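Exam revision sheet. Question 4 asks you to relate a sequence to its structure. Input first:
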Amino acid sequence: MGGTMVGVEEQRVATVDLAVRIEFCHAALQHLADQLGVDLLHIKGIAFEPQWRSRASGGSDADVLVRPSQVKRFVEALEARGWRRRSRFHTGSPFGHAQTYWHDHLGYADIHRFFPGMQPGDKTFDTLWSDRLEIRLASVPCPVPDQAGQALVHLLNEARNGMTVRRKEGVVELLGAELTAQVEALVGRVGAEVGYAAALGELDRVGDHREHDLWHVVVTRSGRVEEWRARVKAQSTLTAKALTVLRAPLVNTEHLANTRGHPPSVGEVVVEFGDRVRRGVTEIWRSRRRGRA
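Answer key, structure tokens:
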């Protein structure tokens, strides 16, 4: 080309503010739900009023609660549209309530099939859905729980994360007497008695409930062996208990991939499995020593 220099245009990457990206993530999830005829409620973070956010920034992902009977259809549609699953329901948390997805442009989204502390099922969802409000995120109308629903989700979420345990007077101070009464009425309607007791620091009064031990483990940050014992006890059927027992020693390969930055090899899975067994045996031994003492 006769000595003519061909310039290479420098690529510029625009940085999108996290809050803006999360808002578009909520909008994209709602748009998909509208296409599919799926009911979902936007929860936590920027979907909630500022006083019901665990973090002032609004968090780092978009959380939605999907009608339980429609979850399978919704996540299949997500995966068909480029969303990559980063965790499964049964491995994402002790409650098995959500799957995490990643989108290269929109970031992280947590898809809840129920909210920890509330009873799973369409009946609970119907209760929250019947009192829903609507906000706009990225100009898309998005359903959210009403003020009592947002306040209850906030209290349960704080208890689950071990952030704040409030006595009854602290809840009244935070919410006011009228909203506290509405929240406590909602607790009974969505089966949140144990989670709400945990939020109040009153787990002892629900000690006979099968979910008591799981909330105790979560609030006190107990060991993994105690967690799995509590998971088994929390299950409502013998089949679910048996499946939980069988799942306990398995390696969470998706979590391993997330921490390693690549799909784990067979060797890495074997090493992790051996380490899980070692940690479990050590924890049981220490627990028995404390018991003898």
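Marking note for examiners. The first strand starts at residue 40 and ends at 43.
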